[in-house]
Amino acid sequence: MYLLSFLILFPLVTAFILLFLKNDKVRAIAITSAAVILSAGSIALLIINFHREAQYFSLEVPYIDKAIFFIETLLAGYIFYMGWKYKKYIISGLILAQFLITAVFETRYRHNIMVDHVLFVDKFSIIMTLIIGVIGSLICVYAIGYMKDYHSQHNKALKDNRRFFSFLMFVFLSAMFGIVFSNNLLWLYFFWEITTLSSFLLIGYNKTQEASNNAFKALEFNLLGGLAFLIGIIYLYRFYGVVELDKAVYLGKLGALVPVALISFAGLTKSAQMPFSSWLLGAMVAPTPVSALLHSSTMVKAGVYVILRFASVLQGSMLGFIIALIGGSTFLITSLIAISQNDAKKALAYSTIANLGLIVLCAGVGTYEAMWAAMLLIIFHAVTKCLLFLCVGAIEHRIHSRDIEDMSGLIISMPKISIMMQIGMVGMFLAPFGMLISKWAVLKALVDFNPLLAVFVIFGSSATLFFWVKWLGKIITVVNTEQDLEEGMSKIETIPLFILAFLTVGLCGLFPFVSTALIQPYVMEIYGTTLTMSQGNIVIMSIMLAMVMLFPLSFINYGKRVKVVDAYLGGANIETGTRFRGASGSIKNMAMKNYYMEKYFGEKKLYRFGILFCFIFMVFMFMVLVK
Amino acid sequence: MKIFLMIIAYIIFAPILGAVLSGLDRRVTARMQGRVGPPILQPLYDVLKLMQKDSLVVRRSQNFYIAFFLMFIIFTGALFFSGKDLLLVIFALTLAEIFFVLGGYKASSPYSIIGSQRAMIQMMAYEPIVILAAVGMYMVTKSFYITDIISYNKPLCYYLPGLLFAFIYILTMKFSKSPFDLAYSHHAHQELVKGMTTEFSGRSLAMIEVAHWYENILLLGFVWLFFANNILIGVALTLLVYFFTILVDNTFARVKWEMALLSTWIVGLVFGVGNIIVLFFVKR
Question: Range with the lowest mean pLDDT among A222-231, A426-435, A585-594, B14-23?
Fold first, then answer.
């Protein structure tokens, strides 16, 4: 109980302290120590609750609801003002609607509401806590070094506002803890809106026209989701008289699907499912730590988190099936589009949306097998994708480009970073690493439920295979003798990368433990039954992991018993081995490019398809409820 | 103990059998073209000769990928013939092939890189059908374990004709035969010099050959699953399928990658998914 409050309040207090620390070095120390404390706190939560079942807490703090309403009013006022100032009247309208609903609700019904338990913690919350606490802290530490370069080298014209930046990051962490511990939906909604606002401010950090437009786009979609969330709560209260998560799940099982649909809708907007995906793609203008923290490993996971909370309700229902279809289509289409992307961050963004789609698909299916698979996906995706984002950030600052085509020869010019990047990449799609284990679990869950849904996953996965391998291949290809670009990288930037790379591999080795200690107890609690990977398969996976780990050992043989020659270029090689004499005697440079297949997997064409399909599904989703 | 023997048998006999099949392939092909053809053991002689040659490389680490390709192919085959989880076999095979593709990338030659990318396009094309086949087998036998699949009391092709067709369709890709020999091929007139294997020579090239023998036996094993309830008839039909791919190899011209990808996906969707849908409604 105290630990929960601590995890919510500590980042908040830190955030305000950071706002007043002017000296860079002092702030770096403060951030690092706060990160250590937060990670330790999250791990402590795991250890304390290791053998305990879900726990619910009631809390009597006078005026806390009034305080929350007061802050909500301030935030609403601010957003309304921003919308008005930049002539984004939709945003002003949405926030006004939300505010009016809250205000009426607050004045008319507040004194009647009985909330038994405001906070709770179970194994799912703990998983999320570990992701927020450990990975989130690592990103905050990485951001210290990254933002220094960001201002001193790459955006010199921009006003240095790093104090505000770190303030927002920590406020965000606090809100995320709030989301995963709240049982009172009104509180959950409050924290939800804070993440929306901090996402808005962080996307717009760059102050360019593009950044500002994309920030507003993100705000618009997320406010729409927030409105649905709020209506869901009000509906729940008006017709059933409760505002608590556990009770909403219980009522959902008895047939109260309308609030479930509304809250799931909010989840879909937050986790950037089609047709709302465009905001997450736009959000890539933000500094890379923001993309890693908010837009891949934590905030977007809050969206799938709320849907997964209702997974047992969605199981077998038409509503669940439609949500599964939305997730499945999103996975398939964004995986295909990822093939055509040569902007590294955008490719990662598409891959993120795809994986969120996969989790939504599992949530919609809602069987215990799907739940197990979804948990695995959340854990492995958070670690691996975060590693990839941070690597791309570091690379971008060194090669001054995020075009995948410019990344050839990284293995020579930035060996350490590129090896960690390779770990991240194989972690995303290859056996025996985490994401593949998860996809395997998804596949099995779907085949048992409805094999037709598996078709989305099967085709989508083969597309991701292609897209990752060609990127991976690009990194290990060497064209010229490159110079060392890694020099002068600060420790504070590389250490988080090391830890994440270690986690990516380590979690695969620890996979049976993660499953038995965290995921299975939760699935057991909800469904009364659970599953695990068979012992034999775990052994085989471990053997495979051990074999893959042997790969670096082969470098003992590096350069032995081989004769080095120039590549065959279909003509006479000249001088360096990368130039050749072409037709009519002209001297040509060798060039190697990847396939992007714009014609078939082009963004514009496929994206429209996706929006159309998912929009239709979404209409169905609400029609089913009205019937 | 029996499992252990199966694994040993596979590791020893698969390359021999693979070499003989490959020799037969060359002989049959020659006959189809009105030539006499080489001795049956010619592929084996080729490999032994390659072992003695110098290893020329462009990048010093390119051969490591090939060694891991071979290692994982053998591992995958061992999993398959000891009756393990079929999905796991497919993932392990993918891992092995990706080592090969990355070897092509690592060689940093334009020809090998284009070859690698085409190999990836093909992998993207056929992977869904392979997994759909496994899913189909699961729907019939209720298990992904090969031991359970082969002990099913009826031939699976009876329930999975569409998937069998789709699987045979992609078999030429897996064997890198015409019309789908985009990535590299044994034929001398290959447009990409020799595609993925352009920069490999000596021991590495020998390893690639041996890996392909292992792989071919594994793939024929997969085909055999469709007829597995009677071992002898199953083997006969599998050989017939192999002969059929040789026939196709000699009658079709190479297609472009677009054709390879789109046609395979269409076959996968129509015959593969179609089969699954029918099965889903019939078996319910």
Answer: A585-594
Element (H, E) at A119: strand A119-121
Question: What's the pLDDT at B50?
Answer: 92
**For residue B188, pLDDT beyond 60:** no
CA A306, CA A164: separation in Å to the nearest integer? 29
Q: Which residue has the tokens 């014209």?
A: A157
Within 8 A of B170 by CB-CB distance, chain A residues are none
Query: Which residue type sits at A54?
Result: A
Is the C-alpha dihedral spanning A486, A490, A496, A502 positive or negative? Answer: positive
Distance CA A419, CA A421 (A): 5
CA atoms within 13 A on the CB side of A447: 24
Exposed/middle/buried for A265, CB within 10 Å: 0-12, 13-18, 19+? buried
Supply the DSSP symbol for B85. Answer: B
Instruction: Give the β-pairing of A587-589 and B56-57.
Output: unpaired
Average pLDDT over every residue of B127-154: 92
SS3 A564: strand
CB contact under 8 A, B107 and A567: yes
- Beta carbons within 10 angstroms of residue B20's beta carbon: 15
Indicate the length of chain A as a whole number.
627
What is the tens place of the pLDDT at every residue in A149-174? 888 877 777 788 888 999 999 999 99
Q: Which helix (H) or strand (E) holds A169?
A: helix A162-181
Chain A CB contacts of B70 under 8 Å are none
Residue A332 in tokens: 């398939």
CB-CB under 8 Å, A567 with B95: no
SS3 of A45-77: the string is HHHHCCCCCCEEECCCCCCHHHHHHHHHHHHHH
More confident residue, B2 or A121: A121
Q: Which residues lie below 8 Å from residue A582, measured CB to CB, with a gap of 6+?
A: A571, A588
A 425-454 residues with CB below 8 A of B? 430-432, 436, 440, 443-444, 447, 450-452, 454
3-state secondary structure of A87: coil
Which value, to the nearest 10 degrees, does the dihedral of the CA atoms of residues B234, B240, B243, B244 take? -120
**Cα separation of A212 and B116, whole Å?**
41
DSSP, res A484: P
Residue A411 Cα, gap to closest chain B Cα (Å): 10
For residue A466 the two structure tokens come to 């292609």
Site from A407, A476, A576 to mutate, B interface, most B CB atoms within 10 angstroms: A476
Q: So where are chain A's domains?
A: 1-58+115-180, 316-554
Identity at A367, one-letter amino acid code: T
Number of H helices, E strands in chain B: 11, 1
In chain B, where are the structural domains located?
2-283
Reported confidence tier of residue B284, pLDDT bands at 50, 70, 90: low
Q: Are B177 and B249 in contact (CB under 8 A)?
A: yes
Q: Are A274 and A610 in contact (CB under 8 A)?
A: yes
Residues 6+ apart with CB under 8 A from A66: none
How far, rounded to the nearest angstrom, does the alpha carbon of residue B142 sit from its chain's CA centroid?
25
The residues, any chain, with a CB within 8 Å of residue A140's CB and separated by 6 or more, are: A31, A34, A35, A166, A169, A170, A173, A289, A293
ipTM, two decimals, is 0.94
pLDDT tens figures, B19-29: 999 999 999 99
Burial of A270 (0-12, 13-18, 19+ CB in 10 A): buried
The Cα B125–Cα A272 span in angstroms is 28
- Please, which residues have CB within 8 angstroms of residue A271's CB and are 6 or more apart in sequence? A300, A301, A302, A303, A304, A307, A356, A359, A360
Interface test with A, best of B93, B130, B131, B184 (most A CBs within 10 A): B131
Residues in chain B within 8 Å Cβ distance of A536 = 84-85
**How far, rounded to the nearest angstrom, does the alpha carbon of residue B95 sit from its chain's CA centroid?**
14
Which is it for the CA torsion A389, A597, A480, A149, positive or negative?
negative
